[in-house]
Structures are given as structure tokens and as C-alpha cells.
């Protein structure tokens, strides 16, 4: 697994994965509406503009890219994405995420490796004090990724998410720069 910049060749594959029938939608924010075809076309068009401008449309010069592709180390094929957005720009508090679109690569450590590399890259490229990620209590795989990587469960918003008629908690896991440095120094305790 590698993280790499977006390429024009990723766009048709990405567009296909945005279609609402794909299984990843059941896990990544399933409480949000899935994009319509028109919305998916606009998402891909926006990504194409970012590729054409070398990411300038999506980021500022002093910040890391907002998104990278999670790809096969063997052939570079598109597996998914990592991303970040501001939870609070005023305090440089960013929230990160990963989506593995291809179900064939889930459950094999790719999500853990992607979040580990992304967290390392973001702390190395910035002066940010913290990063966090949010999930829901029914997404056990994402919770395991966060816990395996030394993130701390910092918030549990009880009964905050409804997924397929069932009520779940919203979970936020966080890691501080110094905790991440120690975790890396210790060789990734618990791996």
C-alpha cells in the first residue's frame, strides 16, 4: 500500500466507486446521503481541476494536500483515499479519514497502514498539535484502526447516528503530536 497524488487515470475508477450501490457506502458516513449522479460528476470534475492545477485549487501552499490516493504498491491501482479537513482552522485542528472503496483490500491492514502514513505525513509537514478521526460505533474496523495506532477515544456522542434504522454512538479518536512521536519511537506499541 502506498499513498500517492491523484492522477487523471484515477478519475474514471473513482467515479465508478462513487455510485451508490457500492458496499463502502455502508461504512463511511452511512448516515449521510449518497451523492446523486450529478453530484458525483461534480466531485470528479472538481478533482480533475485539482489535478490540472497540481492541487492548487484544493490547498494553500503552506498546507499538505487535502487528499491522496491509497493505492496498490505493486501496480499503483486505486484502492481508496485519505483526506483531512479543518475541524477548527483557528486552532489548526484537523480531522482525518480513510475510505477503502475496494472491498477486496479491506481487512488486510491497508486502512491501518494508510492512516499511519497519513498521520506521519501530516505531522511532519505541519506544526499541528493534534489530529483526530471520527467514526460511528457500528464501524468496528475503523475503531480498531484508531486504537491500534495509539489514538485515544476522546468523545462518545451517545445515540447520535442512525444507520439502517439502528441507533449508534458517534466516536472521535484523537492523537497529539507528542503521543504520535512517542508511539512511532516505541515501534508502534500494540501492533
Radius of gyration: 16 Å
Number of strands: 7
User: Which term fits the overall shape?
Assistant: globular
> Roughly how much helix do the residues carry, as a percent range?
25-40%
Oligomer: single chain
Distance between the termini: 17 Å
Strand content: 25-35%
How many domains is the backbone divided into? 1
Low-confidence stretches: none
Provide a count of the helices: 5
Please describe what this structure looks like.
- With 191 residues, the protein is α+β, with helices and mostly antiparallel strands.
- The chain has a single domain, classed as 3-Layer(aba) Sandwich (Aminopeptidase), CATH 3.40.630.30.
- The chain is built from 5 helices and 7 strands, in the order βααβββαβαββα.
- The chain has helices spanning 10-17, 37-52, 110-125, 140-148, 177-185, and strands at 2-4, 67-71, 78-88, 93-100, 130-136, 152-163, 166-176.
- Strands 1-2-3-4-5-7-6 form a 7-stranded mixed β-sheet, sandwiched between helices.
- α3 links the parallel β4 (93-100) and β5 (130-136).
- α1 runs antiparallel to α2.
